């Protein structure tokens, strides 16, 4: 039995002659939050639109909970809630009118609609705006209504295309929290080109660049994608640089402006343990040690360049 809520195999799409995505393979679990990361134009929206049955792929297949989306679109789409990049809101409707319309579209039985709306509104913190026209809501609240329509039928999978785009920092924090709550009981996929966003919200990262998957793994795997090759040390009784350079695996030692020493190494990061041991043995009085990790931007740039090289 396939444990994935989404299984994408050899997915490719071209709008005209150029391929927007090429041979994408993804597996997404039943619970948790997956971040689809990628620069502008990388292919995130194309992938999401195909995944939600809005766009027919040129090649490849999409299974939603083992149901082939192309062969059984209605059954598969019942399992999905989708907030596209531009929320599909009717601005002249009130929140209640709009969500009632969405509930009908989602074929929720008439006697269940009120309860479904109440639950979705409470979840998204918009119950107090039930009678407000959508055009009179702030950007953050419009986005919450967009998320409410995506969860009103309690789908197993919620797909959100750049849900925090255009929001102010407070609204971003609120929407992130909401996404986290939704991800506790179902699978959420959301796209973003903002690294810190994906980092703060997701368990798993899938990164697409130029239509290809260049990374898949946990947030931790992403942060450690480039192994560190330098460390900063502060000694009270610093040794001669030559003593440090003589340690096997150390390729360089340089003082920094603020009294620290930077060691470069080509060995495993565990080389730090050797330095600590030598310091204790030789009375160098090591007070602090820090491995220097690559910034997220450096990792992003390295992964972006992977498809270009
Ligand atoms: N309707 C379309 N017709 C032709 N080309 C398109 C169309 N939609 C997207 N593309 C192209 O397909 C590629 C992938 O676009 P897509 O919108 O999927 O990327 P994205 O990662 O979502 O980008 P963004 O973050 O800017 O929304 C881009 O080169 C884009 O120009």
From TrEMBL:
Record bears the keyword Nucleotide-binding: yes
InterPro entries noted in UniProt: AAA+_ATPase, ABC_transporter-like_ATP-bd, P-loop_NTPase
Record-level Gene Ontology MF annotations: ATP binding; ATP hydrolysis activity
Keyword line: ATP-binding, Nucleotide-binding, Transport
Presence of keyword Transport: yes
Family that this chain belongs to: Belongs to the ABC transporter superfamily.
Stated name of the protein: ABC-2 type transport system ATP-binding protein
UniProt organism field: Chitinophaga ginsengisegetis
Phylogenetic placement of the source organism: Bacteria, Pseudomonadati, Bacteroidota, Chitinophagia, Chitinophagales
